[in-house]
Fold this sequence. Notes:
By secondary structure, this protein is an alpha/beta fold. Helix content is 48%, strand content 9%. The protein is built from eleven helices and nine strands. It has helices at residues 2-11, 32-45, 55-67, 75-97, 101-117, 121-143, 205-215, 229-243, 247-267, 297-318, 353-360; strands at 22-23, 26-27, 146-150, 165-169, 172-175, 183-187, 222-226, 271-275, 322-323. The strands form three sheets. The chain has a five-stranded parallel β-sheet with strand order 6-3-7-8-9. Strands 1-2 form a two-stranded antiparallel sheet. The chain has a two-stranded antiparallel sheet with strand order 4-5. A hairpin with a 2-residue loop joins β1 (22-23) and β2 (26-27). The radius of gyration is 27 Å and the shape is elongated. The two termini are 47 Å apart. Mean pLDDT is 88; it is low at 1-30.
Amino acid sequence: MLQLFKYLLVYAGVVIAERFNYTANGWYFMRTIQIFLELIHSIESNPSVAPLLPWEDIQLCILTELECREGLYSSEQFRQILLALQELLDEAGQSASEGNADAVISRLQSLVFALRLLPETEYTDPLLEQANFDHACLRHIRENTVIVLGDSHVNFFSGNEELSFIPIGNGINTCKGDAPYPFTPLHIGPCLAYNCNRFQTTGSFREKAEYLCRDFIKPGARILCCLGEIDIRVHVWKQAGLQQKPYRDIVDEILAQYVSFLLRLREQGYQVSCWGPIASQKENCPPDPKFPRNGTEVQRNMAAAYFNRQLSQLCGEQGIPFLSVFEQMITEDYLTLDEYLSSDHCHLGQRALTLALPEWQKLGIGEVCQ
């Protein structure tokens, strides 16, 4: 698209550069309609510009403008919109090749008119989020899916290999596509088990969970909670050092909050279960600011092993089903078997399905995924 701006700067006869902000990251581009209006003005000022315009870049402007609106239409409606705009664009390009500047201007004006009929981009995101919300909620209600509530590890239950989140409003995501498994993943953000039962924390997990229970999750639904991996990877060993406490004490403090939240959900009439944290990144995995970590691979897996054992016991005492694939993901020396992780080396990949199916059967749904 930058090539288009070069043409504008060279041929427009106006100081368009002043209408852009340039930073070290590149251009902040004008909106498509603004670009087309500048093109029209340029051709009016200098008709010889028309045959020189980069039509592939102009087409890219239109496609980029439409991308964020695609979810607002059915497939057939969106196809018809694309065909109509493409027809106008082809006619403009043909007229330009023939040197007919007036016809080019006419077609560009028609494109501007058509684009103005589309929803404004500032309204698109809320509309798409509401559509995503409605789609996921209706599927949950109609198919009685299990809600998977938690951090980014809920993605495994979508059937997607890589993270696949789409927003449904209030800082909450579900996952792309219709999951082949009988789950509805709900990603609350990079939330902590330690904070899940508290109000007014950074991720607002408690507030978001209550919103979902009120407006999304059906009464009496099955909820599989998926928290703890971030606590273990980032905070357990850091806090053990800062507080000069054994790591088990830190884990116990986390679990006290987590179990309180599980019991609170059950008191509201939900069928609650719990998914244990998975094995941690390997030591030879290059550091990634998206997935910070403290402690060694062995230390983190030792903390995860204790976390899962204690959580399993606490859930058992309360009659809450506990599911975990952690033990199958580590060696006797607490080293992670990386083949079960996705390409980011932090989340489960779909190769771990063979480990998960026996656990899912505890919820009476494993056979559905065969």
